[in-house]
């Protein structure tokens, strides 16, 4: 960690007046929040929201219709104009359920990133849940020691979280949302009691998978987040059933008023905006199922959601409380990683990084990924020694790791997968083009560091100089030190052939 702290000078901490932006590519709406970092706090200076209905464009094969795709790109281009003066490392754009369901996400993400002018990360449902809870917790400060249940009904998924303070304790994500549920049960537009009952039972079965666990843990208050819950709360208030909360008494009355319409086009709920009329039925079904599964009596409604959570998460990433650090530590403990060996490899990898970062244009984010990959490079040993780099890569890519996007996990997995043995051509296939150069170069640094410590020797390397000239690397070592390690010398002699698969020419010089 000392070496990592020294290398932290490669980036600049947040300064007073810095601008940050969070973009949420939801299944129903795209949101952007722009904030100023002022006196150690975030001050919202702008909000943009557009109803894109990305989930409406999904077909049964994981494709996205041309008209919805264009609608999304047009929206992102407008967002991009607003934040074109904000540095890329102060912007986070996150895609959620609909993009997770695409058969070929890159076919959408590449033009989407071009339109926005910034990279877009895809996050898992549980990571989405963590960020939602973080946003709600900062908007409505929790009471010390109390537990709260947060439910967020999106267009394509619903997230349920129990948290304490600012930390999520339990996180779940279900494939039910207002758009998806409306299309599934009321696709022809007709509203009937029979179909409604069927919908509530089927959606309720999804909640039952974890409802008992949640109820056993308990909570002191329930809060709904995002547009669907806010819309239902506004309907309850307009019908004079509550002052904005949703209750077990009010919800059936809202449902009865909706069912009397008979058809989605004829829904006339007071307080309901026109752009939500076509999807509100599915949202009410999901919330009614949640009330039944959790035995809820009352649910307050929060104005905050994932986008605010992303902003506060960026504060942590830019300071001493990066949530990813805790996740890496948890993985090292869970899989019994040899922390002494991992630290040796990490320290050497960082030493190498510091020497080539300017020439290779590697930044602080690349440094973090290299350091974390070094800590986790032996995680696969918990499964088997043979091909442990393959096992380790699988664990990293397919685990729910709090704080990490899918691309970040794929980046880490690629480094772990290629840190030893032959480098397969497909090792970097999952990564977007914008990350390929950094990934391949970081992989080379991790390979060299792991190789230098293959003997698990605690002795310091007396001379360690690495020079980058284009795609050529030259490693300089002390001759006497190397001659005392014939196995290492033999490994180094064969490494140029292996590392060439990364598109890098590797040379060793001794003197």
Describe what you observe in this structure.
This protein has helices at residues 2-7, 66-82, 97-101, 105-116, 125-139, 178-186, 193-217, 226-238, 250-259, 280-294, 306-317, 323-334, 339-360, 364-376, 388-398, 406-417, 433-452, 479-483, 486-499, and strands at 19-25, 29-38, 41-51, 91-95, 120-122, 147-153, 158-164, 167-174, 221-225, 246-247, 298-301, 465-469, 472-477, 505-510. With 511 residues, the protein is of the alpha/beta class. It folds into three domains: 2-122, Nucleotidyltransferase, domain 5; 126-309, Exopolyphosphatase. Domain 2 (Nucleotidyltransferase, domain 5, 2-Layer Sandwich), CATH 3.30.420.150; 322-510, Orthogonal Bundle (Hypothetical protein af1432), CATH 1.10.3210. It has a six-stranded mixed β-sheet, sandwiched between helices. It has a five-stranded mixed β-sheet with strand order 3-2-1-4-5, sandwiched between helices. The chain has a three-stranded mixed β-sheet with strand order 12-13-14. It is elongated, with a radius of gyration of 25 Å. The two termini are 30 Å apart. Residues 6-11 have low confidence and may be disordered.
């Amino acid at each position: 960690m000392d070496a990592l702290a020294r290398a932290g000078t490669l980036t600049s901490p947040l300064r007073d007046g810095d601008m940050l932006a969070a973009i949420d590519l939801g299944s129903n709406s795209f949101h952007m929040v722009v904030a100023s970092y002022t006196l150690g706090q975030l001050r919202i200076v702008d909000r943009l929201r557009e109803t894109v209905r990305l989930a409406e464009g999904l077909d049964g094969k994981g494709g996205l219709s041309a008209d919805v795709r264009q609608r999304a790109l047009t929206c992102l281009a407008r967002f991009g104009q607003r934040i074109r003066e904000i540095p890329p490392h102060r912007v986070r754009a996150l895609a959620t359920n609909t993009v997770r369901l695409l058969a070929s996400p890159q076919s959408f993400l590449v033009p989407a990133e071009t339109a926005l002018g910034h990279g877009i990360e895809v996050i898992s449902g549980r990571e989405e849940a963590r960020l939602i809870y973080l946003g709600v917790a900062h908007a409505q400060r929790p009471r010390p020691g109390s537990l709260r249940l947060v439910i967020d009904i999106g267009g394509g998924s619903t997230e349920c979280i129990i948290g304490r303070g600012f930390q999520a304790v339990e996180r779940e994500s279900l494939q039910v949302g207002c758009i998806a549920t409306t299309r599934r049960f009321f696709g022809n537009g007709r509203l009937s009691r029979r179909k409604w009952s069927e919908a509530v039972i089927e959606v309720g079965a999804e909640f039952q998978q974890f409802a008992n666990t949640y109820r056993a843990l308990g909570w002191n208050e329930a809060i709904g987040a995002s547009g669907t819950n806010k819309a239902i709360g506004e309907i309850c208030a307009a019908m004079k059933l509550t002052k904005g909360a949703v209750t077990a008494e009010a919800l059936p009355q809202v449902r009865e008023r909706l069912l009397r319409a008979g058809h989605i086009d004829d829904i006339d709920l007071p307080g309901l905006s026109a752009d939500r009329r076509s999807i509100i039925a599915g949202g009410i079904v999901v919330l009614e199922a949640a009330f039944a599964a959790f035995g809820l009596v009352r649910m307050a409604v929060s104005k905050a959601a994932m986008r605010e959570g992303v902003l506060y998460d960026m504060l942590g990433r830019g300071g001493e409380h990066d949530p990813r650090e805790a996740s890496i530590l948890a993985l090292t403990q869970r899989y019994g990683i040899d922390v002494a060996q991992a630290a040796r490899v990490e320290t050497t990898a960082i030493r190498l990084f510091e020497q080539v970062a300017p020439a290779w244009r590697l930044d602080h984010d690349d440094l973090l990924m290299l350091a974390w990959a070094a800590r986790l490079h032996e995680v696969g040993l918990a499964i088997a020694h043979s091909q442990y780099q393959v096992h380790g890569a699988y664990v990293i890519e397919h685990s729910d790791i709090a704080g990490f996007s899918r691309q970040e996990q794929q980046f880490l997995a690629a480094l772990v997968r290629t840190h030893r043995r032959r480098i397969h051509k497909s090792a970097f296939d999952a990564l977007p083009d914008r990350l390929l150069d950094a990934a391949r170069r970081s992989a080379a640094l991790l390979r060299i560091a792991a190789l230098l410590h293959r003997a698990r020797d605690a002795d310091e390397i007396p001379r360690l100089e690495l020079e980058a000239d284009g795609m050529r690397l030259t490693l300089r070592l002390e001759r006497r030190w190397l001659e005392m390690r014939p196995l290492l010398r033999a490994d180094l002699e064969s490494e140029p052939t292996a590392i060439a698969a990364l598109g890098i020419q590797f040379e060793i010089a001794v003197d």
